[in-house]
Amino acid sequence: MSQVFVNIALSLDGYMAPEGMTLAHWDTADYKDWGAKWGAMMGWLLKQRYFRENHGFGAGGEIGAVNDMVRRTMERTGANIMGKRMFEQGEASWPEEAPFHTPVFVLTHEKREPWVRPGGTTFFFVNDGAESALAQARAAAGDRDVRISGGADVVQQYLNLGVVDALEIALAPVMFGGGRRLFENVREPLPQFKVDHVLAGPDATHVRYVRT
Amino acid sequence: MSQVFVNIALSLDGYMAPEGMTLAHWDTADYKDWGAKWGAMMGWLLKQRYFRENHGFGAGGEIGAVNDMVRRTMERTGANIMGKRMFEQGEASWPEEAPFHTPVFVLTHEKREPWVRPGGTTFFFVNDGAESALAQARAAAGDRDVRISGGADVVQQYLNLGVVDALEIALAPVMFGGGRRLFENVREPLPQFKVDHVLAGPDATHVRYVRT
């Protein structure tokens, strides 16, 4: 059966996004230095060849274990789920060929027709909650896996539903000092994980936790 | 020159201690389940042979890379610094031969004569702040290193002073859901670290960060 997984980058001090990284300051990356902080956290990813090709950043880039992991993450994913804020930031940033190539279920109160992008990404706007989005994503993913893409509040919702089979964290050595924490609002009974795999990259430590 | 280092265990969600783990509930480890949570975070350490011998837990225990790391951490340490709360909890828990075997500088407002324990541990009570404690610890440590032992607020003070050369974290896969966070109150300019070493144990991921 297909899995539900989270695959995100995290700052050393536990933030998914630095303070100031909001749509209001999307074009002013020097606001609270959010651009440099985000870049430092994502540096390991931005230089991988597979990621660069997928995002149209041009040729070149690193190959190796991290690049292979990035490719496998993409290839195993049959559907994505994300929050409204992540979608809106992406809408302002992604190339026309949005970098998912799957159905993407956006948790939002906004009513909106599906938005079809070239390259296989279609955004569906789900108004009836996280469990409904997951059911739709599972159906769409078929044998492939469902990725909870973010942001933090959406990951927290699925952790609290107890449905996250694997939690894959790229822990970068950068400190943010503030921002959106991944781990808060997670309630009892707390999800239980064990370490499944560690890939020690030079710029991030990639740990895969699986549900026990 | 000797280094200043932090070596602590951390829950997956970023806590050094679970909610409820206070002196008031020291004898009721089922209060908010703090004992089980703490034990789950420290499980990797509690079964190492060197740790068991040092704490008088009896013979046996694991040997290998993690045990070697625990021994090296102890052997390199020429002085410890800790906060008042950690000291008080330890005072209620440590065996008569306290498990430090070095001078220990306790940050506190309490005026108290040095407390000499068998086995080489002497607690000195420092009333004039973190920088003074560090100067005293450096002098006492000689060629060996100074360990910032905890708790979270003390680690934060030294991070903010910019004097932490190495940050060694045993990241355990347990979730606490609440408690004392390691990373908060850390201010700009934020300390800058890079990954120096990763030891992937079965029960915790040991990452060593060094100052850049």
From TrEMBL, chains A, B:
Residue ranges of every copy of the Bacterial bifunctional deaminase-reductase C-terminal domain listed in the record: 4-199
Q: Which Gene3D superfamilies match?
A: Dihydrofolate Reductase, subunit A
Q: Name one Pfam family in it.
A: RibD_C
Report which superkingdom the organism of origin falls in.
Answer: Bacteria
Family annotation (InterPro entries): DHFR-like_dom_sf, RibDG_C, Riboflavin_Biosynth_HTPR
Q: Which PANTHER family does this UniProt record tie to the protein? A: BIFUNCTIONAL DEAMINASE-REDUCTASE DOMAIN PROTEIN, DIHYDROFOLATE REDUCTASE FAMILY PROTEIN (AFU_ORTHOLOGUE AFUA_8G06820)
The protein depicted here goes by the name: Deaminase
User: Organism source for this protein?
Assistant: Lysobacter helvus
